[in-house]
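Figure 2 data, in text form.
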Amino acid sequence: MPIPYVPDGLNGAGAPLSFPGASGRGGRRVCPCLLEWAVRVILKSQREIEAIRRSGRLAREVLEHLGSMVRPGITTLELDEEAYRRITAAGAVPSPLNYNGYPKSICTSINEVVCHGIPERRALREGDIINIDVTANLEGFHGDCSKTFLVGEVSPAAAKLVDVTRECLDAAIRIVAPDVPLGEIGNVIHGIAARHGYGVVDEFCGHGIGRNFHEPPSIYHFRNDRSKKRMKPGMVFTIEPMINEGVAGTRVLADGWTAITLDEKLSAQFEHTIAVTDDGRDVLTALDGESATWA
C-alpha cells in the first residue's frame, strides 16, 4: 500500500502526506502515520526479517488466491470479503482495515485507478485490469505485496503496460544490495518506463515496513537525487512502482482515498517487500522458486 509524500518533507527526505482526516499545524493535512514515522531507518534483525517473511508469505498466498478469482462478473467487494476470511483464518489481521479510516481489508484499483481503490459492488468487466494490494499483520509484523491482473481478454496496450510495470519492479529488485543509493531504484524504474512513453507516478512512494505498516525509508519510483541514503543490511522496504499509460499526474476522488490518473488512462502496479542482506537482497513476499527472477 503506497503512501503519499512531501518532496521537501521530513528532514528533506520525503514524508507521508494527506491521508483522510489528518491535519497538521496551520491546517496543513499530513499523514497520521507520521505518528509512527521515525527519523531514522529501523534496521531489522534476522529474527524480525523472518517474522516479516511469514506475514509476507501469507499476504502473497492470499493475493494469488484472489487473483485466481478474478473474472468478469465478480465484484471487488467479494474479493475483499474473501481476503478478510483468509487472513483472519490464519490468525492475522488485514493491515489496511481501519488504518487511518480506510474501510476495507485490501485495495482494488481498476483501470485508471492508480492506488487505494476501495472495494465495492462494482463488477469486473472483460478487458479491465485490476491491481490487488494485500498487506497482512501476523504476530505484530506486516508483509505487503500487490499485483495487476488481467480480466479476461484485454487490449494489447493494456497487456503491454502491465508487462512493462512488472519489468520495472523486477529490474529495481535486482539492484538492491548494500551501499547502493536508494535513489537508484527510481532511476532504474524511470528509465524503463520512459523508453515506452509511460508516466511514472511521483505522488506516491514505497516505504519501510516491519512492526509499523509504514516507516522510513521512503522509496521513490521516479528519477531523482533526493534519496542520498545508501542501502544497509537489515533495511526492509517495499518497491511498488505505479506506471501510467499517459501522464504521471494523479488526483484523489471525493472519498479521500481513490487516486486516479489525471488523463483517466490506464495505470498498473506491482509490489514486493524486500530485505537488504549482506550480499544482496531477499524478497520476503516471494513464493518458492521465484528467486531466480531477480538473480
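Caption note: The longest strand covers residues 129-138.
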